[in-house]
Each structure stands twice: as structure tokens, then as C-alpha cells.
């Protein structure tokens, strides 16, 4: 039996992202999401999450964002200097505290915007929290990360075929690991503050497509959330 976590990133980025993630959970296959506590719709996202007990909610640590500009990357914003260990630790702690104020509990999992925690100093900061709080961290937990359901190349060009219902169903059918985290970025409308915009609505349509739901609930696959995994470990 293969267990699949379908995690939607960027919860709280905008109302349209929130609406897309909620719909992808209630009408589709999303089981988990990661909250950006510093973004404009974070409070609305937390309010929505409180009405959805089956939706696992983790912290999407948001240190900075970059976009491709020609042959180089340029910074869109920074909450802390990404290469300053003390600044990063302080910012992560502030985001954790805000998460707890919004949700009334610790996150079910940790990851980061644009995978910044694959590098230092954010990697060590999150792994230290994971060690003391028993919180799984993306790329460093038993769940194998799958980023195949994404429609943008490193140069910013769109590949919508990668997020079609057929592509998503095929990805799910090809899963080999006992536990996989499949990442997604749905939205119910435009997200003009994001360089990944129109693709989000296509993702939502695929995540809610009947053929995808059928594959994701077939006998060989069990949809779970990060919260389910924590409860299972607690019982064991």
C-alpha cells in the first residue's frame, strides 16, 4: 500500500490561493498545506483551516523570493538576509510564533518558499526545530518529495502539459515509495503577485478532476496528511 500526501504550498499568499487550496481539499485530492504567515491572506487562511479538521497545516518558511530576469535571478523581497544565520533563526522563530497565534498549535510539518532550506543556514535551523519538536521537514523526512506536478522551467517558461489531469494521474500511478509528498500550487483565480500565476488554476482543475480522484483513491494508494503521520507515531 502506497501512502500519498498531496501538499499545497503558499496558503495565505492571497485569497484566490486560499480558495483554490480549500477547494482542492474539499473537492479534490489535497490533504495538506503549508502556510505563509507573513503574506496578506494568512489570517483568512488560518480561519479557513480551523473549519477543515482533515487538512494538515504546516509552516511554509518564507525568508525571501527571487525571480528569473534574463540570465540572472533578482530579489523580489527579503524578510531576513538569507546568508545571515542569526537573522534567519530570528525570523524562523518569529514565523513559528505567528503560526501558533494563528492556528493555536504547532505546524504539522515544515518546508520553505523556493526550497531555501536545502541550503545553509536555513537547513540547520529547521532541522534543529524538527529534532526538538518531532516535526517532519520536507526533503529530510521519510516522505519522498515529488515536484513533478509543476509547470514552470528554471527559465520561467510554462509547460502546462506537466500539470494536466493525465500527467497528474500518471505521476500518481508511477509512485514507488511507501510514502510520498506530492507538491502542488493551486489557486481559484489570478495571483498577480506571483510569477507562477495562470498555472495555478490549471493545477486546481487537475487536482479536482474525476479521473485523478479515481486514481488517487484506488486500492493501491491511500491519501494521508502530515497530521495523520504524527498521530500514527504517537499511538505507536
How would you describe what is shown here?
The protein is an alpha/beta fold and 236 residues long. It has a single domain, classed as Glycoside hydrolase/deacetylase (TIM Barrel, Alpha-Beta Barrel), CATH 3.20.20. The protein has eight helices and nine strands. The protein starts with a strand and ends with a helix. The relative contact order is 0.21. The model is unreliable at 231-236 (pLDDT under 50).
Poorly predicted parts:
231-236
Which radius of gyration do the C-alpha atoms yield?
Answer: 17 Å
Strand tally: 9
Largest sheet properties = 7 strands, parallel
What would you give as the CATH superfamily?
A: Glycoside hydrolase/deacetylase
Query: SS-based structural class?
Result: alpha/beta
**Fraction of residues in β-strands:** 15-25%
The CATH architecture would be: Alpha-Beta Barrel
Kindly state the percentage of residues in helix. Answer: 25-40%
Helical element count? 8
Estimate nothing, just give the exact number of structural domains. Answer: 1
Q: What gross morphology would you assign?
A: globular
CATH topology: TIM Barrel
**Helix-strand sequence:** EHEHEEEHEHEHEHHEH
C-alpha termini separation: 19 Å
Question: What is the CATH domain class?
Answer: Alpha Beta
User: What do the pLDDT scores average to?
Assistant: 92
Amino acid at each position: 500500500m502506497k501512502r500519498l500526501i498531496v501538499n499545497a504550498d503558499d496558503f495565505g499568499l492571497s485569497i484566490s490561493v486560499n480558495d483554490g487550496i480549500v477547494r482542492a481539499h474539499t473537492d479534490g485530492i489535497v490533504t495538506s498545506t503549508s502556510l505563509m504567515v507573513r503574506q496578506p491572506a494568512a489570517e483568512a487562511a488560518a480561519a479557513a483551516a480551523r473549519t477543515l479538521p482533515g487538512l494538515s497545516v504546516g509552516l511554509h518558511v518564507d525568508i525571501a523570493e527571487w525571480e528569473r530576469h534574463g540570465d540572472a535571478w533578482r530579489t523580489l523581497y527579503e524578510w531576513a538576509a538569507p546568508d545571515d544565520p542569526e537573522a534567519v533563526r530570528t525570523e524562523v522563530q518569529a514565523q513559528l510564533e505567528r503560526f501558533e497565534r494563528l492556528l493555536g498549535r504547532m505546524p504539522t510539518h515544515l518546508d520553505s518558499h523556493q526550497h531555501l532550506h536545502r541550503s545553509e543556514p536555513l537547513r540547520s535551523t529547521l532541522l534543529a526545530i524538527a529534532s526538538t519538536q518531532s516535526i517532519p521537514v520536507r526533503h529530510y523526512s521519510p516522505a519522498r518529495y515529488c515536484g513533478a506536478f509543476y509547470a514552470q522551467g528554471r527559465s520561467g517558461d510554462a509547460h502546462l502539459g506537466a500539470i494536466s489531469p493525465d500527467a497528474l494521474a500518471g505521476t500518481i500511478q508511477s509512485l514507488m515509495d511507501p510514502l510520498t509528498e506530492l507538491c502542488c500550487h493551486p489557486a481559484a483565480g489570478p495571483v498577480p503577485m506571483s510569477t507562477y500565476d495562470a498555472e495555478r488554476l490549471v493545477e486546481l482543475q487537475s487536482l479536482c478532476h474525476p479521473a485523478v480522484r479515481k486514481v488517487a483513491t484506488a486500492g493501491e494508494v491511500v491519501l494521508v496528511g502530515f497530521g495523520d503521520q504524527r498521530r500514527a507515531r504517537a499511538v505507536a
